[in-house]
Design brief:
Helices cover about 95% and strands about 0% of the residues. With about 120 residues, the chain is mainly alpha-helical. The N and C termini lie far apart (about 165 Å). The relative contact order is 0.03. The mean pLDDT is about 95.
């Protein structure tokens, strides 16, 4: 059997080997975790960039569509304004003609009274 001194020496050697092995394993795990984290972050960044590009593209498409719709509405408003102006002028002209005819009718009545 081994003496206590030999057992203590073996124990110290085992503890040293275990400690070195543990540190080595922890360093390797940390390295792998770091690489995995970088890989995940890279993939997330790529996907975010892709998503951002898609969203910006959709926003641009929507903006273009809405601009076309606004142009159509503006064109229709311009046409309605022109129609309104023409209708207003026609109504004003009709009112003037009616006043003129009314005035002429009164003058004709007066002349008829004078000649009768």
């Amino acid at each position: 059997m081994l003496e206590q001194k030999d057992l203590d020496m073996l124990k110290n050697m085992m503890e040293t080997v275990m400690k070195t092995t543990e540190e080595s394993i922890l360093m390797k795990v940390d390295e792998k975790l770091e690489k995995t984290e970088e890989s995940i972050l890279t993939k997330v960044d790529e996907r975010l960039l892709k998503s951002e590009t898609l969203v910006l593209g959709e926003i641009e498409r929507t903006r273009s569509y809405l601009e076309k719709q606004i142009e159509k509405v503006q064109k229709n408003m311009d046409e309605l304004n022109q129609y309104y102006r023409i209708t207003k002028l026609e109504a004003d002209n009709t009112a003037l003609w009616l006043r003129l005819i009314d005035g002429l009718s009164k003058r004709v009545e007066e002349l008829e009274k004078k000649t009768a």
